[in-house]
Design goal:
The complex is a heterodimer.
Chain A (H helix, E strand, L loop, with lengths): L1 H9 L13 H33 L6 H15 L3 H15 L8 H27 L2 H9 L4 H16 L1 H14 L11 H12 L2 H30 L13
Chain B lengths: L1 H13 L9 H8 L1 E7 L6 E4 L2 E3 L1 H17 L5 E7 L4 H6 L5 E7 L2 H4 L2 E3 L4 E10 L14 E5 L4 H12 L4 E5 L2 H9 L5 E5 H10 L6 E3 L5 E10 L3 H16 L2 H10 L2 E2 L4 E2 L6 H8 L15
Helix pairs in contact in B: 3-9
Classes of the chains: A mainly alpha, B alpha/beta.
Chain lengths: 244, 300
């Protein structure tokens, strides 16, 4: 069984001390925690801003508001996420007084959250525009205010429509969180690069990181598919082909 | 999920198959080709662009290859250049893609399981760079401060050991590369940059105002940097080591050292101004291929 023994030996490094009393597997799970934390906080930021901006883009009565919302989307989706991260880290925090002390975790979540918010805003807008125009008109004819029409008629349907693209965005944000490595957040990629250097176990380290990324993304996919089933309204036009 | 597990199992099962070919010298002789591993941007080997590589270790390897050509008695020996990174350099030497890795690889026991190292001709010292106007004079002064270092380097481990050994409290920030770490020091996000002395010197030499920075004399660790070759190939190792021994004897190594560390070097014609350390001179006086673990570390 020397073959399996060899494979077993190759993974032994996970139980080694990295030099300060922390073993590599402990470090790996702490790094995974950072990846999940960056992704989760960024996703909350992205969802909050994305829904707001996406909705505002469809408000036709207030030209200034929808223009501002369009400006937000174009600004944040036209700059590569890594460049945005560096802008926050090295430019904005230098120019704006008092920003120096902001932890890099917060800056990374802002950068990743704003970048993704532009993409989510577009999905929200597309979802709203996918609804028949009669829905809004009927709501207003019933005497709903603009705000009530959005709150009770338009947005509840929109969110159900856009669950599939939102799932992709949530999975993307997990994968994009690897850019946080560039502003010295000790997440999975940073762990992988450092550990493979220290232990010369590059293949095993990257394999482990890959598996953790896959597990995280699959968990999101699983959660969102449950959400989609739970939120389904039987007979709603956009989900007409769904199983009952 | 099960499919993923199966895929993962296959992937790491495949790693067990590490093939061993014939001797490197025979391979070089029969194919007329030797592959030299080079680095894009590293202290001892880097590129000038357009596939042109240079550096201290690059020059040492060029001399080794000339000696091997003479030894084999072949008329023509093509040199292929294979850029390597710190991630792929060990696997590429293991699988025979690279015959002679001439970058800046630390000789340590972990790597010694997978590859062999030639005789050391350069000993790196891990030092601390700070702003010239700061009042930091030694490692202990960094208690409570922020220290930058680069992900994927042994300096990270050196820092950890010092933290535990000397009971210091400092926070670490990890730059994604050396330029990034230096930027952390420059922008004030870090109070010090701990790294190989040659890398610190190179970054300071390239800074807008080199006088704004200083390298503290304290040595945190010493590491032999060596040329990497395939494991268990005594004939090839002997040929490489003989060439290095001859280069040390004839003073070629000392001349190359002067060329790369005391004179202006391309591409910017900056001078590192780093006289050979006692440790490096000791390595020339008593040629050896000991790993880091066999060196006496400062403070031990």
């Amino acid at each position: 069984m020397t073959y399996w023994q060899d494979i077993w030996d190759r993974w032994q490094f996970l139980w080694d001390d990295r030099g300060d009393g922390v073993t590599y597997w402990q470090w790996m799970f702490s790094a995974w925690g950072y990846t999940v934390a960056v992704a989760a906080v960024s996703l909350v930021v992205a969802l909050a801003i994305g829904c707001l901006v996406g909705t505002l883009r469809t408000v036709s009565q207030h030209r200034v508001v929808s223009a501002l919302a369009t400006g937000w989307v174009e600004l944040f989706r036209n700059i590569p996420v890594l460049v945005q991260l560096f802008l926050w880290f090295f430019v904005i925090s230098e120019i704006v007084p008092g920003m120096r002390g902001v932890p890099s975790f917060v800056l990374a979540c802002c950068a990743l959250g704003f970048f993704t918010s532009a993409r989510i805003a577009e999905q929200v807008r597309a979802g709203i525009q996918a609804l028949p125009r009669g829905q809004r008109q009927a709501a207003l004819a019933m005497g709903f205010t603009q705000l009530q029409a959005y709150r009770y008629v338009i947005l509840p349907q929109t969110f159900r429509i856009i669950i599939p693209p939102l799932t992709s965005e949530a999975m993307n944000i997990v994968k994009n969180s690897s850019v946080a490595f560039a502003v010295s957040i000790p997440e999975l990629i940073s762990f992988a690069m450092q550990t493979q250097e220290e232990t010369s176990r590059g293949i095993e380290v990257y394999l482990a990181a890959t598996v953790l990324y896959i597990i995280t993304a699959l968990a999101i996919s699983w959660f969102m598919s449950i959400l989609e089933k739970r939120a389904r309204v039987p007979g709603l036009s956009s989900q007409g082909q769904g199983a009952h | 999920m099960r499919k993923v597990l199966i895929a993962a199992t296959i992937a790491f099962a495949a790693m067990g198959a590490a093939a061993q070919a014939d001797g490197t010298l025979d391979k070089i002789k029969s194919s007329g080709i030797i592959t030299q591993g080079v680095r894009e941007s590293s202290g001892l080997a880097y590129t000038l662009g357009n596939g042109v590589y240079t550096g201290y270790h690059y020059d040492v390897c060029q001399n080794i290859i000339a000696d091997i050509k003479k030894k084999l008695g072949v008329e023509k020996l093509d040199i292929r250049y294979q850029p390597v990174t710190s991630q792929n350099r060990v696997p590429l030497v293991q699988n025979g893609t690279v015959d002679l890795e001439c970058g800046s690889t630390t000789n340590n026991k972990a790597r010694g399981r997978d590859v062999d190292f030639a005789t050391t001709v350069y000993i790196e010292e891990i030092k601390i760079a700070v702003k010239a106007n700061s009042n930091i004079g030694k490692l202990e002064d960094l208690n409570g401060k922020t220290i930058a270092t680069t992900t994927g380097t042994t300096s990270v481990q050196t820092l950890r050991k010092n933290k535990r050994g000397k009971d210091l409290k400092f926070s670490e920030v990890f730059g994604k590369d050396h330029a990034d770490s230096f930027l952390l020091l420059q922008s004030g996000r870090a109070d010090a940059f701990v790294m190989d002395a040659s890398i610190l010197a190179a970054n300071i030499a390239r800074a807008q105002n080199p006088k704004d920075y200083k390298i503290l004399p304290e040595v945190l660790a010493v590491e032999p940097i060596a040329i990497m070759i395939r494991k268990n190939d005594p004939e090839f190792k002997k040929a490489v080591d003989e060439s290095i021994a001859a280069q040390i004897k004839t003073g070629t190594i000392a001349k190359l050292y002067d060329k790369w560390f005391m004179q202006p070097i391309p591409p910017n014609n900056v001078t590192l101004n780093m006289p050979a350390s006692d440790a490096t001179k000791e390595a020339w006086a008593n040629p050896n291929d000991k790993p880091t673990e066999d060196y006496k570390q400062p403070g031990e």
